[in-house]
Amino acid sequence: MAKIRKPIMSHSTASGLYGLRRGLFFVAVLISLIAPGILYAQSGGDLGGLDGEATFFSSLEDIPLMPGLSELPAQGMVFDKPEGRIVEALALTGGIPHQDILVYYGGTLPQLGWGRVNDSRFFREGEVLEISFSRLAEGDVVRIMVRPVL
């Protein structure tokens, strides 16, 4: 007579483990999204300058200048059109890693009403804000471009 073997795990136990793994994955993803902002805040990062007051780009009065960045006002441009503004602001990074700058603005801009598309692109009230990096004779720069949604 053949012996019938019982499964090691029942179907409900297996699906329970799947749900647990799925939940743990979700928590890990959530932590990876918020941890950089928390670490930046714990390291003393904030919206303000040395005196606690927020410093903003001269051409983008509603976008803070991250502490440690040095604005290059002569390099920026402003076009005010009926369809909306087109503004480009540049700042020397001062050796701050690009990822730290993206983390700073990724945590700051949503507090100012900007929705996040990805690490370097945001939207608000018919405008798109894009963050990019380049190299000029003066050094590494972060470029912030605000333009109307087309």
Could you characterize what this model shows?
Helix content is 29%, strand content 29%. With 150 residues, it is an alpha+beta fold. The protein has a domain at 70-148: Ribosomal Protein S8, Chain: A, domain 1 (2-Layer Sandwich), CATH 3.30.1370. Strand 5 and strand 6 form a beta hairpin. The chain starts with 10 loop residues before the first helix and ends with a strand. Mean pLDDT is 80; it is low at 26-44 and 46-51.
Q: Spans of 5+ residues with little confidence (pLDDT < 50)?
A: 26-44, 46-51
Q: Which sheet architecture does the biggest sheet show?
A: 7 strands, antiparallel
Beta-strand percentage?
25-35%
Q: What's the mean pLDDT score?
A: 80
Distance between the amino and carboxyl termini: 76 Å
Q: Mind telling me the C-alpha Rg?
A: 23 Å
Global shape: elongated
Care to count the β-strands? Answer: 7
